[in-house]
Design goal:
Helix content: 40-55%
Number of domains: 1
CATH superfamily: Response regulator
Order of helices and strands: EHEHEHEHEH
Largest sheet: 5 strands, parallel
Number of helices: 5
Strand order of the largest sheet: 2-1-3-4-5
Radius of gyration: 14 Å
C-alpha cells in the first residue's frame, strides 16, 4: 500500500485529503506543519508528500528546501498544495523543488491525475536504475 504524508495546518483540509486518499487505497500519515512533516519523513519515508505552502512553524517553501538538501529523501515526490495558483506563483513553486501542485479547493480528479503522474514517473525512474 502506498503511503502519503499530508502536511497541512487546517484540520478540515487535512480530513478532506485523507478521505480522498483513503478511498483510492492510500495509507495516510498527517503533519500540522513543516517540522512535523520532516520528523515523519525521517521516521517513515512516505511515497508522496502533499505539502501546504502556508503553515505555521515551518512553511512549505522552507520544508521543501530542507527535503531537497537531505540525501536521505531528496528524491521524495512532493506536491505543493496551495490557495495561491497565479502564474508567478506556479513558477516559484516549480523552481523551488516541488514536483507539481494542487490548487485549493482540492479537486478529486486533479488529485488523482497528479498522483498517477508521480507514480508513473517514479516507476520509470526505478526501471532506469536497474
Amino acid at each position: 500500500m502506498k503511503k502519503v504524508l499530508i502536511a497541512e495546518d487546517n484540520a478540515v483540509n487535512r480530513e478532506l485529503l485523507r478521505e480522498l486518499l483513503e478511498i483510492r487505497g492510500y495509507a495516510v500519515m498527517e503533519a500540522c506543519n513543516g517540522v512535523e512533516a520532516l520528523d515523519q519523513i525521517a521516521k517513515t519515508t512516505p511515497d508522496i508528500l502533499l505539502l501546504d505552502l502556508s503553515m505555521p512553524v515551518l512553511d512549505g517553501f522552507g520544508t521543501i528546501e530542507r527535503i531537497r538538501k537531505n540525501p536521505s529523501f531528496n528524491t521524495l515526490p512532493v506536491l505543493a498544495v496551495t490557495a495561491y495558483a497565479m502564474q508567478g506563483d506556479r513558477e516559484k513553486i516549480m523552481t523551488s523543488g516541488f514536483d507539481g501542485y494542487l490548487s485549493k479547493p482540492i479537486n478529486a480528479m486533479a488529485l488523482q491525475k497528479e498522483l498517477e503522474r508521480l507514480e508513473e514517473r517514479k516507476s520509470q525512474t526505478n526501471r532506469h536504475k536497474v
